[in-house]
């Protein structure tokens, strides 16, 4: 059995890239023992190398969090080998290549809901018993401003999933806050992450430079986590200062996946 961690234990999903990897690095720099979770081992190992090279502590677990058994096993492994989980960061997310509900198929819709909502529920269900018994713990979920203003940029499935998970986090806040649980929702605006590469028209490097950067979200999460347990930042909007014209992107997204001849 691995020696129990001396610092807070933080589990970060989607830790192989983007906001997840940056969040893991910032939390580790702040003294947390970080468990890096994702589907692919190679990028997780690379993030672990960065963390350990900087003097931090990280563990890698290649897990498909959409699998209910795998999610429960992950939490059990952390509790058995490292100790109780202090912080869960639900960061893993996905979007569909088709944004228009007229053209998205069932598999794409279900896949987006599974990663962005169902996996959050499963991991939360697994960590709640220990947190509530100890009357302390923090669950952070990365939602999106697509939950507030859904449109074709993120797509129908993504907006619905992010709105649902925001609702779920609000439920946790209103239900368990008096038992010491902090439920925190992060609502980023357009962020320069690999998920943008899946769009019908990926933004240029110039446009991405003015977007929220993954490290901006990571620092926001770290701030919320580092505050005393008596304080909860229930919802945090992290948006770009400059608002860009997305009209052309919306028009392309409107017709992505449409059958031949559908576009006027």
UniProtKB/TrEMBL annotation:
InterPro entries: KR_dom (IPR057326), NAD(P)-bd_dom_sf (IPR036291), Sc_DH/Rdtase_CS (IPR020904), SDR (IPR050259), SDR_fam (IPR002347). It holds the Pfam family adh_short. GO terms for biological process: monocarboxylic acid metabolic process. It comes from the Bacteria. CDD domains: SDR_c (cd05233). Residues 10-190 form the Ketoreductase domain. Belongs to the short-chain dehydrogenases/reductases (SDR) family. PANTHER family: 3-OXOACYL-(ACYL-CARRIER-PROTEIN) REDUCTASE, 3-OXOACYL-[ACYL-CARRIER-PROTEIN] REDUCTASE FABG. This is 3-oxoacyl-ACP reductase. It comes from Arenivirga flava.
């Amino acid at each position: 059995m691995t020696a129990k961690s001396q610092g807070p234990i933080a589990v970060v999903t989607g830790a192989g890239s983007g906001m997840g990897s940056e969040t893991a690095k910032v939390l580790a720099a702040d003294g947390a023992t970080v468990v890096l979770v994702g589907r692919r081992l190679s990028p997780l190992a690379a993030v672990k190398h960065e963390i350990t090279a900087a003097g931090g502590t990280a563990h890698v677990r290649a897990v498909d969090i959409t699998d209910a058994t795998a999610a429960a096993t992950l939490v059990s492994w952390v509790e058995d080998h490292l100790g109780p989980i202090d912080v869960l960061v639900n960061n893993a997310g996905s979007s569909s290549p088709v944004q228009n509900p007229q053209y998205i198929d069932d598999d794409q819709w279900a896949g987006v809901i599974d990663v962005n909502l169902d996996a959050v529920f499963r991991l939360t269900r697994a960590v709640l018993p220990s947190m509530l018994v100890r009357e302390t713990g923090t669950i952070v979920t990365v939602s999106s401003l697509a939950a507030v203003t859904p449109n074709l940029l993120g797509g129908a499935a993504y907006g619905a999933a992010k709105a649902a998970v925001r609702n779920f986090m609000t439920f946790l806040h209103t239900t368990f806050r008096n038992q010491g649980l902090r439920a925190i929702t992060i609502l980023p605006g357009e962020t320069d992450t690999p998920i943008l590469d899946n769009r019908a028209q990926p933004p240029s490097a110039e446009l991405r430079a003015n977007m929220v950067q993954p490290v901006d979200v990571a620092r926001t999460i770290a701030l919320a986590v580092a505050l005393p347990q008596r304080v909860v930042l229930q919802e945090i909007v992290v948006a770009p200062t400059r608002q860009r014209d997305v009209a052309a992107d919306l028009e392309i997204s409107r017709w992505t996946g449409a059958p031949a001849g559908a576009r006027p």
